UniProtKB/TrEMBL annotation:
Coiled coil: none annotated. Residues 16-176 form the N-acetyltransferase domain. PANTHER family: GNAT FAMILY, PUTATIVE (AFU_ORTHOLOGUE AFUA_3G00765)-RELATED-RELATED, N-ACETYLTRANSFERASE DOMAIN-CONTAINING PROTEIN. Gene3D superfamilies: 3.40.630.30. This is GNAT family N-acetyltransferase. It comes from Streptomyces olindensis. InterPro entries: Acyl_CoA_acyltransferase, GNAT_dom, N-acetyltransferase. Signal peptide: none annotated.
């Protein structure tokens, strides 16, 4: 894994390249977010129109401009095909400012360790470059694969922080070094 300077927006792993999204990724954003399998556990994230993907890209790009980090497009080194997306965004959890770890991959990329590899890289990057914000992942209880990715990325269950999200109960996983407490 290499380091990332916020100015270049790129991360590398043994197999993967993570880069800041561009307008050229809008079709992939749409394809991955309109697939019923990818949003099975989070149906509120599903997209049905291309203009929704454009708006999602705009929000991602705005965050990059404001924070210097965000969601990365993930692909293999030897391919231009977007496998999915992984990254972080600032949010609040029970009144605490945190970073939320996000990962969503096309079903064709499932079961190959890509999400875990990308999430671990983003987790390491966040601990180095945004150490003041605790890192969490919100995972639906029935989403076993997502739970495994969170654990492989170095997060552990923080049951005391579980809360209801847009699509029901979210289990909270937190980075081991995170200083979180429930009010």
């Amino acid at each position: 894994m290499s380091d990332l300077s916020p100015a270049d927006g790129q991360l590398q792993t043994a197999r993967l390249s993570l880069r800041r999204p561009t307008e050229a990724d809008i079709d992939a954003i749409f394809a991955i977010h309109r697939d019923p399998e990818t949003c099975l556990h989070n149906p509120s994230d599903a997209l049905t129109r291309l203009d929704e993907a454009r708006e999602l890209y705009r929000r991602w790009n705005d965050q990059w401009q404001q924070c210097g980090y965000g969601y990365w497009v993930v692909r293999r080194h030897d391919s231009a095909l977007q496998l999915g997306f992984c990254g972080i965004k600032p949010m609040e959890l029970r009144g605490m400012k945190v970073l939320n770890l996000f990962y969503r991959f096309a079903p064709s990329a499932w079961g190959q360790g890509f999400a875990s590899e990308a999430a671990a890289t983003v987790t390491t990057w966040a601990s180095r470059h945004v150490p003041d914000l605790p890192l969490i992942a919100r995972v639906r209880p029935a989403n076993i694969a997502s739970q495994r990715v969170a654990v492989r990325a170095g997060l552990t269950r923080a049951e005391q922080l579980d809360e209801t999200g847009y699509d029901g109960l979210d289990w909270i996983y937190a980075a081991r070094h995170a200083k979180l407490s429930s009010p």
